[in-house]
Amino acid sequence: MAWAVQQIPQIMRTSAIVGVILVGITLVATTPTRALDLSHTIWGVVGQERKIDPNLLLAVALVESKRYAGPGKISPHPWAIRDAAGPHFCKSLQEAKNLLTNPRANTDVGLMQVNLYWNGNRVKDPSDLLDPGTNIRVGADVLVEAIRSAPNDIILGIGRYHRPDDEIEARAYGTRVYSTWQNLTRLPGKGSA
Questions:
Q1: Which domains does the chain have, with CATH numbers?
Q2: pLDDT value at residue 8
Q3: d(CA 182, CA 172)
Q4: Is the Cβ–Cβ distance between 170 and 160 less than 8 Å?
Q5: pLDDT (mean) for 110-117
């Protein structure tokens, strides 16, 4: 857990880089670029482990737990919790743990907003999902399963991460994440022109 907590500033920095696109500023490129290089981040590590594009994992996290991180910037938030009272962007791990002392079943937790009702059984304790590595791994597992549930329809598959039982809502969500993912793959990466 200590390693993952140390990764939080790096997660925030990586995510802030992509914020400009996601708040409506158009990126115009005259030369081809490669995707944002996440290979040495927790996103890249989990992407490689779970055999899924780390930019797609980051796209889900940006759609799920985004928080404004300054002018023209957004970042996924590691201690975001959404429950019946609405979203909470906790300022510390301890504040988030306190909020999860008696969680309701329909509570979303962390970077990937893992839902306790559907996926709480994947961890021993809901507060385990406040660890960025654990949260991204569980979210990646859910996302891979969702995509496999719609093998010929990536939008629907991505959408089932958020709304597995409602095709219309799943498609709307899938479209938002897919668009974010495409924007991330257009960001300049290491060694790009």
A1: 2-186 (1.10.530)
A2: 65
A3: 15
A4: yes
A5: 98
